[in-house]
């Protein structure tokens, strides 16, 4: 049953999608909102469920070249772990530090770590992107983002 990697990954994604979909149906409903907050999570969960089923039943034959592509060198594995650590720190400090500062720090240091060395462009992008997103979310969409230590 789980002879190919596609079937194993498809089954794992099906389980994750099922749990995600179950949790998205637990989100509260708001009676006066034209589009509720649970529309996107439910849509993504259903899409992931459908795609995981398609992956499970795909008839792609695994060649030796495809198996060799899956091997991750130790150096790249350490890079992946470092980026996951940065994401974890970002999530951990998101509300305390705030959206703008934490996102700016994350974008700058993650892009620097991954090899982008033009620090002037990195600083400009890491400041302008979170500011733009903050303005769009707070003023245009009316969605509150954590301001953290900034007096916004």
Automatic annotation (TrEMBL):
Pfam families: TctB. Keywords: Membrane, Transmembrane, Transmembrane helix. The keyword Zinc-finger does not apply. The keyword Ribonucleoprotein does not apply. InterPro entries: DUF1468. Residues 9-146 form the DUF1468 domain. The chain crosses the membrane at residues 9-27, 39-57, 77-93, 99-116, 123-145. This is Tripartite tricarboxylate transporter TctB family protein. It comes from Planococcus halotolerans.
